[in-house]
Amino acid sequence: ASAEPTASATSGADGTCASTSATRAVNDNIGKVPLAFADADMADRPGSEWVADDTSTYDPCAELSWVTLGIKSGTVSSPFTQMLFHHGEYLGTTTSKAIGFYPTTKRLSDSSVQVTYRWNTGNESNAEASGRAVSTYTWNPDTESIDHAGEWPPGIG
């Protein structure tokens, strides 16, 4: 995990900033994240524990921010998931279950992020993984929830 960032100097669009640090926001909510392995027999194996990969993407002042989780001692195709936050409040994960391969995420605005998922197709090696799906997640202030637009990887939705 990365060193813990300091809170943003500016407050969110509505003047709201959480006082919760990235480490605390993750630690307080990581138990709510679906298991890395859906198979109960795999859930207790070494390396199935979620760990924050990079907490610098968490912003307690943003309408929407995220933290990517990987598994302890994982590989390039190990499960990953992303926690979403609104002004530091945990909202859930970007997908209903973990996805192999690290997702590429970029901020589009204070309230929107774009995630590109990848996967192997056919008999490709991990290095050749050419499957791609692009999803956009946007905070909707009217419903106080996340709107999803775009594609899902196979088996997700």
Task: Explain how this protein is built.
The protein has 157 residues and is mostly beta strands. It has 2 helices and 9 strands. Strand 8 and strand 9 (145-150) form a beta hairpin.
Characteristics of this structure?
2 helices
Summarize this entry quickly.
This protein is mainly beta and 157 residues long. Helices cover 8% and strands 36% of the residues. The longest helix has 8 residues, at 22-29.
Tell me, rounded to a whole number, the average pLDDT. 84
Strand composition percent: 35-45%
> What is the first-to-last residue Cα distance?
28 Å
In DSSP terms (H or I, runs of 4 or more residues), the helix count works out at 2
Please count the beta strands (DSSP E, at least 2 residues each).
Answer: 9
Broad structural category? mainly beta
Low-pLDDT residue intervals, each spanning 5 or more residues: 1-13
Rg, nearest Å: 16 Å
Shape: globular
Instruction: Please estimate the helix content.
Output: under 10%
Q: How many strands, which pairing sense, and closed or not: the largest β-sheet?
A: 5 strands, antiparallel
The helix/strand order is HHEEEEEEEEE
